[in-house]
Amino acid sequence: MIDFPLVINADKNCHDLQSVCDWISGKKSELEVQLTNSGAVLLRGFPLKNAQDFDQCVQAFNLKNFTYSESLSNAVRHNRTERVFTANEAPPDVEIFLHHVMAQSPIFPGILLFFCEEMSDSGGATPLCQSDILLDLLLVSDPDFIAELEEKGVRYTNVMPAAADLDSGQGRSWQDTLGVRTQEDAEARLTELDYSWRWQEGLSLKVTTPVLPAIRSLEDGRKVFFNQLIAAYRGWKNARDGGKKAIQFGDKTVIEEATMENVCSLAESITFDQYWQLGDIVLVSKFLVMLGRRQGSGRGKVLASLGD
Known about the structure:
about 300 residues, alpha+beta, about 30% helix
């Protein structure tokens, strides 16, 4: 039985930022193995205070930086340093449902790092779900659905606003998401990505992805439920997006509500809620673990960094 998440408490010699970074550099290979085995590793009790401290720790892992600006993330985030940004600018009472980060796009990172800069007054936990175990449960519960996913893949549809919508977990504008300024440039970028699109009233932009895999095989032979189906089904519901209309099989046939309700229920049954303490760092394997954010209150602030 593998501990999930694996908890590593501060080494007695980690008394300041430099000693923490030295410890991370020395333990890098061991931490990578532990992350591959567990899917999530919590570093707790280290003397870290802010985004700058977290940035130095991220650099100690010596990962290639995967920037927010180059991603196709739907979420509004604000950079705090070159490597560190806010996890999501949606209000704390907006729940963010389980997902593999950026699995709704053809561009995604390999390792996720999170840091607690401020604790919520209440709630605000980060749910973590092992997607290889979820896939095993689904293979027993609904093998026909998994077979159909493997055969057909999935498509996602969402509407990007003309200006950032801070009330939504998927409120990033099309200009920022696509890295463009004009409609013409947006269309060129979408063509490059093989997306289909339609301009809507108010210059919002409705886009549909090409066919993307929903099940992935890892190098060690494990298969994972790697997608955004739960988040899109449960969470893409605002003034622009329809939730249930946000997902379909790759051949454009419907994924039934009863099927998705079963997926959501099974995922919730094996989800661990990570409650934060100041200075916590959580490493998450992109392929092995889905995550989200529970509703909370107060000024809680979790920062993120992405690496390859």
